[in-house]
Amino acid sequence: MIKLRLRRMGAKKRPSYRIVVAEHSSPRDGRFIEIVGHYDPLTEPATVKVNADRARYWLSVGAQPTETVAGLLKRAGVTGQAAPEATATEQAAEPASV
Q1: How far apart are CA 87 and CA 81, in angstroms?
Q2: Backbone angles phi, psi at 56, to 5 degrees
Q3: How many domains does the chain have?
Q4: Distance (Å, rounded) from C-alpha 65 to C-alpha 71?
Q5: pLDDT-based confidence at residue 96 (cuts at 50, 70, 90)
């Protein structure tokens, strides 16, 4: 199975991560197929950069994201809704049909 998951980079106690497409049996920092983005949790706010086209492609061919990567993709606006607060205000702005 192909997975979208995090690969740890950076120095000791200064982690940054790459979002990679890898075979599920490969080690965490081992062989991967493609890099589709990166995540830096130490910046304020945390930095998430994703190549949305490539991420959508891999999801469309059956790649499964890990829980963490699924949340990051949602936050980056690749899957689902990027900001749930925006949807609530959009729904409030629409007139109710009776």
Answers
A1: 8
A2: -65, -40
A3: 1
A4: 9
A5: low
